[in-house]
Amino acid sequence: MLREWWRGGLALLLSALVCVLVAVAAGGPGVLEQLAGQALGSRLEQAQRLAPGVVHSARFDPEEARIGAVSDLGADLDGYAQAIENSTPRSLRGALVHDSTRVQLPTVRGAGAALSLVYASDAPGQEAYVAGRAPRARDEVVELAVSTRTRDALRLRVGQRVPLRAGALENVHAVGRVTGIFRAAGERRLWREQPLLARPLPGVAGARESAGALIAPRGAEFLQNQAGVELTVHWNMRLALDGAAAARFVGERGERDFRRAMARHPLSARESTCRFGGYGGKSCLIGVHPATELETATELPDVFEEFLRRWRQATVVISFASASLLGVGLAAVVVTSLLVVRRRLPADRLLRARGASALGLALARAAWNAPAAALGFGTGCAVAGAVPGTSPAYGSGLAVAVLCWSLLPVLTWGAVRDRAVLRERAPGRAGRRLVAEAVVLLLAAGGVFALRARGVDGAAGAGGAAGVSGADGADGAAGGGGVPGVEGVAGALGPDPLLAAVPVLLGLAAVAVLVRCYPWPVRVAARWSGRGRGVVGLVALSRAAKEAPARGLALLVLVVTLAGAVFGGLVSGTLAEGRRSAAAWQVGADASFLGAGRDPDMAARLARARGVRETVAVRQLRVDPVSGTDGGRYGISSLIGVDADKLREAAGSSAAARALRDAGLTGGGRGREIRVLASEGRAGDLLTFTRHGKEVRLRIAGPLPEGVERDPALGPVRGATEARQHLLLTDNGDLGSFAASEFEESALLLYGERLDAGALRSLVPRAAPGTAAGELRIRTEEQAEADDDGLIAAVDTAHTACTALAVLLALLALVLELLLSAPARGRTAAYLRTLGLGGRATSALQLLQLLPMVLAALAGGVALGLALPALLGPALDLREFTGGPTAPDRHVDTLFTVALAAGLCVLVAVAVAVETWLGRRRGLGAVLRLGRTDD
Question: What is the 3-state secondary structure (H, E, C) of 221-262?
Fold first, then answer.
């Protein structure tokens, strides 16, 4: 038996298939966990690229004179930094590290400019200096270091004395001395976060030029003592996680650990730096400086929550791909087992005639197949274990191996049982088929309904599941929230029975429908071809219609593979385009400045920046109006004002500008009423709300046209607040009576084909967490971040790998199925050859016989792949990936779909050519037997 097993090519093929499936089942969760870790690490790195992840700050007063105490602010700040880093929780130790310490003074006047003096522990070393050296501690002189551009702009030189006078920092009368000139080159974070250190900025409207300079801690201390003011120091931390380290925080348990660590770290940092802290007072000490307790600001928990919500949706796509792969692989195992059964069937029937039982033959085949399954299981586990940093799921691999091993004896028993041997057709066979098809359809519908219902329920009830009570307040803070809509990623990393079953069930349902439907048009085509003189079309199409139920397995393989590939291409294209559209929505123009009303001077600087062609102001008010006729409540609304004429000139395709122009609302009205376009209401309706004790009247001039709510020009202000019940749009001219402070959000849209992103960013650097500065958004930066999305890359990688492997297995299964049905086609061709059919006609016969199945598989697979997003509904919310006002429009990867269809057609053509070549080499006696009636 062993010699037969080693010589059997089909046994080796079975072993190879078992190896592939076991490797996927056992190693898939570990690989998915690694992809999640890499995506999370990439997202955290992206979030901290232009601003620190965690910022600890403290306010401190001028030094207090103490007997025997000598102030060394630099050493004291370093000691605080070390204490903060040492207070990092164990789970983040080595990953959450101190990056820099910064003290920025209010501006002073010096060298004809407004100087921003900064102490930075991450300042460049001596190698960056082209002249002189870095500032040092001096008691009477403030040493300065400037960049080469600042030197050229202010005409400074090393050794030059610079009188420092009061500016924003009052009561200052000191002398500065330039001790070094450095070159601000490269992508140093300091230049991005403090752009004035790299290059000065010209003044606006007669204001002084602005420049930056580096100082030593003693210089900051000296100026603080003179001015008698309070300063703020920032200790910037960064969380650097590689793929393996980040993978520890993906999953329900890792989520709790991350929340607990991020909540505990600020408390530990306060305790380690100030044991006798008090609320609001300066009961702590930084050396000899009274200081407040540490205040911590970070956006990393929000980034983490956003990632988990998006990863939950990513697992749906990846799980579908892996389930399709396993389904296609099992179908390939079934076809291979059927080939083994076909080869052994004559001998088995002879053994049955001699008295052997069907169960005994099945057990013998199980013993014959056991070495192949064992070899495949061992090799697959070895492949799964070879992936570094993962722990294979050997239990899942064993279950798959046992399933593959059991298929051959089950199929053998079915082929040699009494009814099969005696060729008795049960009278209820057609009824059983109907029942089986109905069960498949009901199971598919139930699976889809359950998946959709679970998506809705998860959004409602998953929040708070991550909470873990602990002994201290940090645990409570860590556990109180939970991520809305996230049930725990750990479960998604392992095999989800529902997600794994739905693709196969939908494929079976599609096959059941196709097998019932596609023979009808084939029979019609056969009748039509029978009217002609040739026999090829009639015979080929008649046999294709007759053999449709026998093609169910091949149809299942092709439909599931094509559906998974089309679904993956659809999701990939939708995500890529959706992220770009969301970036345009967040920015609103080529660039935008949020908070223009709070910082009009900066808005004026940006409007005069290089490359800015047009500017448009967009402002938003929160109003809660009532009906002016019956007093009924209208609902909380966003009242948005835009400069309609400017917006139409800057962006001619703007739906908001076009709507205001068509309604005659440009330029503002002259009456006492504010004319608006409303998302709900009739033209002429009156709405009122109270402002400062006075009634403000809103007159609806017409309905809001379709498309206005998705106009990117409104994106910056609408995205800054939660969605409201209604949207009211008007021209800024009608909002002239409102003060800038009354608007909850305002933005200045910047248009220009040749915007200088570097110049804009030097005016408004990326703000650190916790600051109230305005935010500058640049479309090129946002689109670059969208294109560099690690999560989408992980989805593409996983789905591409699964699809490629599924396509290979599908091709193998199709070839094996063609081999399985080749004898029947060969006999048909041989019969016709005895009647004088030529070689070309034989090839056409075989091609036409397979063509209906291929076309049905293409139609069913493509239709199912395109329908999957709609079928899944809330279980797959692509807006979690992209953001934006609505779900992204679907983008079908047409080229990929056409390539798959063309590849399938080429494969069938090659198979037909090979069969024709083999048929010519084979004698008629090899396929024709006297008295055969099975065809």
Answer: HHHHHHHCCCEEEEEEEEECCCHHHHHCCCCHHHHHHHHHHH
